[in-house]
Amino acid sequence: MEEINEKGKEIKDNENIQEIVEQTIQHLNNPVTVLKPIVKKYLSAVTKVLNEGNKFFFSDGDAKVEIRVVSDEIMRVRLAPHGVFLEEFSYAVKNVDQKVTTFCLEEFEDKYTISTNTITCVVRKQDFHISFVENRSQMVMSQDQAPMHWEENVEFGGYYVYATKTCLPEENFFGLGDKSGNLNLRGRHFQNWNTDAYSFAWDQDPLYRTIPFYTGVHDQSAYGIFFDNTFRSYFDFGKEDVNKTSFWADGGELQYYYIHGPHLMDVVKRYQSLTGTHPMPPKWAIGYHQCRWSYYPESKVKEIAEGFRSRNIPCDAIYLDIDYMDGYRCFTWNKKYFPDPKRMIKELSNIGFKTVVMIDPGIKVDDNYWVFKEGKENNYFCRRSDDYFMEGHVWPGRCQFPDFTNPTVREWWGGLYKELVDIGVAGVWNDMNEPAVFGSGTFPNDVRHNFDGYRGSHRKAHNIYGMQMVRSTYDGLKKLMRNKRPFTITRAGYAGMQRYGCVWTGDNVATWEHLRIGNIQCQRMSVSGVPFCGTDIGGFSGEPDGELFTRWIQMGTFSPFMRAHSAGDTAEREPWSFGEPFTSINRKFIELRYRLMPYIYSVFWEHHRYGFPILRPMVMLEQDKVSNHYREDEFTFGDKIMVCPVLEQGAISRIVYLPKGKWYNFWTQELLEGEKEHHVQASIEIMPLFVRAGSVIPEYPVMQYVGEKNVEEVLLNIYYADYEVNSFFFEDHGDTFAYEQDIYSEKKFRVRGDEKSLLIEQTIDGLYTPNYEWYCYNITGLPFTVKKITVDEQELSEFHMDLQGNLRFKSNKNFADIRISGI
Ligand code: MIG
């Protein structure tokens, strides 16, 4: 039999023995080195198959493989090296079993097949190779290059587990969440181990989060693999060997989901159906936020808040970083800086500011500190394998750390927010939850975790720790705030984290390169199931100049999470810190964010309800063109607005590629053809933006914060197209969970134009009625002179063309169809 050693090269049995002998000799000479077995065991021929409902068990006599039909398009593969599967448990997956229409097992001479309506899983008898085939085209989407394999872990028990798939010559890869290099992952190797990566660099790996989900695109078709394993994991996309895509982990089960496309969008939506979507955020959370390490004392916080109001720059939230606490003790206040936090928060709220505070996992070892005392008495802190507490130094000094993988601890921690909620804190920011420890970086491997009753060392719990912390925060706030939507932000996380909070990309740097990195990171997070993401606008460390800051504000206007943040040792970093012309440009873009609020909010709904990503990179818009697999600058926000951030110092124009269809230049209203590149204006007042022809973009009046004004009429910006386009417009309370009971208004617009007319149809769903009565229309690009407008068959007498040549009129918001006809 042939074996494959660590480096993936094939070796014969006797060579293998030779290596073991050599290692043993080395070990005897130097007993300090750990003897690590190098023998990988591979599945051999299939000898048996058994079926139980939607699960199929294949065996080679010893090892077992379970293939489970999750839905018509998703199947799950699990490996048990000696036939015993681990108990079913996942922090990431909400529903393993979805709706399947039919499936069946068939046996052939050389293989077994399990088919649904859409896909077929093929298990080759002779060598246990598993592949997935699309029924319609008979195309092999993903196939084993070697049988699944494993290696015993003599130190901790369990196995190192490996899967190796074929990497096709023209195949490209996307996803994996938190990576800082090119969007396309092909030719690179990655590792997942949540890491506090202060001032991380281009392509530095690993970073803060673990999302072991990737998508592959070849032959114009896409599929995804979700390797649900919380141990340190690795991915190799044709780097080690151009013909192989591999993923493996330092422990746990080899368990992965094959997720079918054929469109990338379908893969991502199906991945979200497994791991969940982001709940609707409170509307203020998608406004502009101002943060710094740290604004203190109280007078400084107020000066900043008032600074926004006096300059008429919209802002919804101000953040308190660690210095608001008493000696960095979580859930306490430094009374010298903040003598009466309740009053301050109230005063901030009077001028439209929400207060968000930071909470870290490290709890100061201090017997006079109630949080420490409660945690200690109840045995809530993590312990080492020899039973001593896990201790490490963080901001407060010597600390112990709650075991957030214990449901009782999560419940306790969630309740600790009571006082903060009572005094009016609106959101919580969880930092340092990789977990980060000064000096050592993180916990040692032997720390024990409850792991929701399934037990594990830190090797297994490390990558999940941050997500369980923000989960506890989110659930706690949700209870304390009754029916109000919590706002939480986390630095670390794992697949499924989107159910509990939004994320920022961590400690970036004020450089042009980091603007580019951030642009890619947000897009990548978006196609990895974590769409509510943003960068520290301006860069956390280092000093941006006015130009860089303004370019970052422009890009940030189209980051799902829009927050400026900076380290304490840098110069002031508010939108007005750089003088003119920057202040005015920054104001104009932040205002644009608020004007587009109803559109942005609707895109969040499309994500929450239907699983669409918020940012969509070019490859997702046009995966059939291989050149798009390498485009990573431009993306759409939702499916209507194309965003082309300016990433170069001194740029006054740039080349943009527009996908299929027709697009209006947002600034000039010029109509441009898609499927080609254009050279467009991009001086400092402009970041190129394009609107898909046929779109309806709802707009609110500029507000200084969400809810400042009653919306009296909604402006509908409609862009003529000579084809049909659908648009969404979602509204609801903006801060409650009533949408779960259908208390919302979901409008669909269908716009269809021809040479002489434009038809706009509206359907309305849901049980919520907005307060305003009127829509105003701003119709761009009509190719004819308007003769007549009818609203639900009634002729409208008042309409006019404005200075830009746009058609303007008003109607009742409940119209069903509007016909504009011309000559
Ligand atoms: O060790 O709380 O990424 O956003 O301002 C640094 C202080 C701790 C790291 C976070 C950053 C935050 C800072 N924190």
Q: Which structural class do you get from the secondary structure elements?
A: alpha+beta
Largest sheet: 10 strands, antiparallel
Report the CATH topology name of the largest domain: TIM Barrel
Distance between the termini: 81 Å
Q: How many β strands by DSSP?
A: 55
Small molecules held by this entry: ligand MIG
Instruction: Count the DSSP helices.
Output: 13
Number of domains: 4
Give Rg in angstroms.
28 Å
**Helix content percent band:** 10-25%
Protein name: Alpha-glucosidase
Keywords: Glycosidase, Hydrolase
Domain Glycoside hydrolase family 31 TIM barrel: 279-602
Domain DUF5110: 716-779
Task: Please give the structural blueprint.
Layout (H helix, E strand, L loop, with lengths): L1 E3 L5 E3 H17 L11 E2 L5 E5 L2 E5 L4 E6 L4 E7 L23 E4 L3 E5 L3 E6 L5 E5 L4 E14 L6 E8 L5 E4 L13 E4 L16 E2 L2 E6 L2 E7 L5 E5 L6 E6 L4 E7 L3 H12 L12 E3 L7 H13 L6 E4 L20 H10 L3 E6 L3 E2 L5 H8 L13 E4 L2 E4 L6 H10 L1 H5 L4 E4 L17 E2 L6 E2 H23 L6 E4 L2 E2 L7 E3 L7 H15 L6 E2 L1 E2 L8 H11 L5 E3 L17 H14 L1 H14 L4 E3 H4 L13 E3 L3 E3 L9 E6 L3 E4 L5 E3 L2 E6 L7 E4 L3 E4 L13 E7 L4 E8 L13 E10 L2 E9 L8 E7 L5 E6 L2 E2 L4 E2 L5 E6 L4 E6 L1
Parallel strand pairs: 16-32, 22-23, 22-36, 23-24, 24-28, 28-31, 31-33, 33-34, 35-36, 46-50
Antiparallel strand pairs: 1-2, 3-12, 4-5, 5-6, 6-7, 7-21, 8-9, 9-10, 10-11, 11-12, 12-13, 13-20, 14-17, 15-19, 17-18, 18-21, 19-20, 25-27, 26-27, 29-30, 37-38, 38-39, 39-44, 40-43, 41-42, 41-44, 45-46, 47-48, 48-49, 49-55, 50-54, 51-52, 51-55, 53-54
Helix pairs in contact: 6-8, 10-11
Bound molecules: ligand MIG.
The site of ligand MIG has 10 residues, from loops.
